[in-house]
Design a protein that fits this description.
With about 290 residues, this protein is α+β, with helices and mostly antiparallel strands. The protein contains eleven helices and four strands. Helix 2 runs parallel beside helix 7, helix 4 packs across helix 6 and helix 10 runs antiparallel to helix 11. The chain is globular, with a radius of gyration of 21 Å.
C-alpha cells in the first residue's frame, strides 16, 4: 500500500497517457488524419490545462493575500519534524498500528495571523502540510502532535488516484475561471476591487462537488486514524475544541471551494457553507461526550 500511494501521481500520468492513446486511435479510425489532428490538439490542450493550471490555488491565494509560505529548514522551533517521526513510528509499530501506516510529508509554515492548518497537493509535486505560526504558538506540544496527525491523515486520504484526479480537475477548473475573469472587459480598467463572477460561480460548483465525496463520515474516519497513530483521544478532542474556538475569534475567511484541504474548518461564521461536521459531533465521536 505504501508503494501504491507513493506512485499514485505516476499512475495518474500513465492512465492519462493510455486514455490519450486510445482517444487518438479511435479518432484516426473514425476521422482519418483530420480527426487524428483535432484529437491531438484536444489532448495537448487538456494536458496543458492540467499541468499549468492544476497548481494548488490555495497556496496562490495565501501568497496573493501577502501571507508567506515557506518550508521548515534548519531550526524547528515547534518540534514538528520530531513529532512526525514519532507518529510514523507509532503508526507502524504501536499497539494500535494498522497495515496502512502514515506517510511522511514536507512541512511548511505560513505567517497568516489566523490559526489554520491545511494540506496541498499538485500534479507536479508531492503533498505538503502547512501550519500557521499563530496556530503553533497557541498549541501545546501534545496538541501540535494531534493537529499534525490530522494533517498527515488528510494528506494520506487526498493522495489516492481518484482524489488526485478530482483535486487536479477542480484546481484546473478554478484556474480557467480566474483566467476568464482576468480577460473580461469589466476588469480592463484597473479596478481596485475586481469583479469576479466566473470565480464566484466556479467556487460554488467546486464546493458542491467536494460535498458529494467528503461526507461527515470522511472526517470521522480522519479522527479515528489519528487515534490509531498514537494520539490519545482526550488530546485530540482538546485540539479540536481549541481550533474551533480560535476559528470563531480569528476566522480565516476563504473561498468555500478550498475547505476540503483543511482537517478542521478554518471559520465558524453564520451564513457560510460548511463542509466539515460540527466540532461537537467530532468530539463526541472521539471521547463519547461533550463538553470536555
Amino acid at each position: 500500500m505504501k508503494e501504491l500511494r507513493a506512485s499514485s501521481t505516476w499512475l495518474l500520468l500513465i492512465v492519462f497517457l493510455v486514455a490519450s492513446l486510445l482517444a487518438l486511435t479511435f479518432a484516426f479510425r473514425w476521422g482519418g488524419r483530420g480527426g487524428l489532428f483535432l484529437m491531438l490538439l484536444a489532448v495537448l490542450s487538456l494536458f496543458s490545462i492540467f499541468f499549468w493550471l492544476g497548481q494548488d490555488r490555495l497556496i496562490a491565494w495565501f501568497k496573493n493575500n501577502s501571507f508567506s509560505v515557506r518550508e521548515i529548514k534548519g531550526q524547528d522551533l515547534w518540534s514538528l519534524s520530531r513529532l512526525q517521526t514519532e507518529l510514523l513510528w507509532v503508526s507502524r509499530h504501536g499497539k494500535r498500528s494498522s497495515q496502512n501506516s502514515l506517510e511522511a510529508g514536507r512541512i511548511y509554515i505560513t505567517e497568516c495571523p489566523c490559526p489554520v492548518a491545511f494540506v496541498s497537493h499538485t500534479f507536479r509535486g508531492s503533498p505538503i502540510m502547512v501550519f500557521s505560526r499563530t496556530l503553533l504558538e497557541s498549541f501545546s506540544l501534545d496538541e501540535r502532535m494531534a493537529i499534525l496527525a490530522l494533517s498527515m491523515s488528510l494528506r494520506e486520504k487526498l493522495s489516492g488516484l481518484f482524489s488526485q484526479f478530482l483535486f487536479l480537475s477542480l484546481n484546473s477548473f478554478l484556474g480557467i475561471t480566474q483566467f476568464l475573469d482576468e480577460i473580461s472587459p469589466w476588469n480592463w480598467f484597473g479596478r481596485k476591487k475586481k469583479f469576479e463572477p466566473f470565480q464566484y460561480a466556479g467556487s460554488i460548483l467546486m464546493f458542491s462537488v467536494s460535498r458529494l465525496f467528503l461526507t461527515n463520515e470522511f472526517f470521522f474516519k480522519l479522527d479515528r486514524r489519528v487515534i490509531e497513530s498514537g494520539v490519545p483521544p482526550k488530546i485530540l478532542a482538546e485540539a479540536l475544541w481549541k481550533m474551533s474556538a480560535l476559528a470563531q475569534t480569528k476566522p480565516l475567511i476563504i473561498p468555500s471551494c478550498f475547505l476540503s484541504q483543511f482537517p478542521v474548518e478554518p471559520f465558524l461564521t453564520a451564513g457560510k457553507p460548511s463542509l466539515h461536521p460540527h466540532f461537537r459531533a467530532r468530539i463526541e465521536r472521539v471521547i463519547g461526550y461533550f463538553p470536555i
